[in-house]
Amino acid sequence: MHKDQIISQLIQEKIITISPDKPFTYASGMLSPIYTDLRLTVSYPELRDMIASDLANLIAKEFPEATIIGGVATAGIPHAAWVADKLHLPMIYVRPKPKDHGKGRQIEGRFSKDDKIVLIDDLITTGGSVLNAVKATGKDGGNVIGVSSIFTYYLPDAKENFAKSGVKYAPLLSYPELLKKENESGHISSEQYDVLKTWHEDPWAWGKKFEK
To answer: What family does this chain come from, according to its entry (predicted)?
Structure first.
């Protein structure tokens, strides 16, 4: 596994950005002092290959019965393709909503009710988008046995949402690992470390201080 190398490069290439005083707003409306733009990983061949290799090994270990790899649009699609290639498995991908033309598909690619699908997304914050993809796949007759991602913030909302869904989740990298690496590397001050740790413990409460 290349965890330390991957985290180091994510930091070095500023794929992860820290801004405690001017927080970022996530799709959920949550405010955060950290932004992780994993879409940028596709521009770094060695980095994306390490990610694909580690995800493939993780999925082979956690979901050995998998017969199809699925990508969650849009950021999860390229990584799912590379992982499917390494595992020599078929691939599908899931749109956010059905097409409004043609056959109106939301799931692209072929699968049967007997297939066991693992969906890949780049990042899990609350888990909402990937769990919607799980529902959409199930609605079309697909059997999603698990979800994986490059990174997860491991927020309380995500833990609760996955617990309710009953879907197994196996991420490659987590926020606590990132925070530990950032602290050890000296890239952040002790004050920034405290901010990042406090946000992670209760992100919604942390964001309230920026409300007008």
So the answer is: Belongs to the purine/pyrimidine phosphoribosyltransferase family. PyrE subfamily.
